[in-house]
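Re: that chain you flagged

S.,

Sorry for the slow reply, it's been a week of failed gels. I finally had a moment to sit down with the sequence you sent. For the record, here it is as I used it:
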Amino acid sequence: MPGLIGKKIGMTSVFSAEGKNIPCTVIEVGPCVVTQVKTVENDGYDAIQLGFEDKKDKHTPGGEKGHFKKAGVNPKRHLAEFKGFGNDYKLGSEITVDLFNDAVWVDVSAVSKGKGFQGVVKRHGFSGVGESSHGQHNRLRAPGSIGAGSSPSKVFKGMKMGGQMGNKRVTVQNLQVIKVIPEHNLLMLKGSVPGSKGSIVLIEK
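Prediction finished late last night. Pasting the structure tokens below so you have them in one place:
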């Protein structure tokens, strides 16, 4: 679906017409420029590649310099592909947050905050096992049994155990568009989106 690249600014809240306090995430969306147009004839599918945020030439590899020079734009720090734009945009075209003026719901993708190695209580919501009145003192947050010893004599794949938590690509669907502020390239969405402040997010209609 059509979309843009943005940067998560932070969270705030607004009041609705009924007086309800609505938590919102503020995202700086674009402006993005078209750095490549993909077609069925050349690439096997229709899509456009968008670039977001300028970066210095000295930080741009030679191959990327040629790619951006062909599009007639300055080197960009972040690139992403989006489908559904049709043939409305050419190389070098600029797309702003106005794209979401008529949008009511959007999907947001980003890399979630990394939590490091976590146990089953934090990672999977286990309640913990054992009672302190039964003589044990260090098993309150343990997972308990993870399988029988005699049969099947193994631990099945997918067993909920401790491990790396967060730092994964997450997509949150159907977030409501609260407000579009085109003069500052800002988009306000109801609720939270993945990632920390300053992280890059992809917003799709």
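What I noticed first: The first helix runs from residue 40 to 43.

Talk soon,
D.
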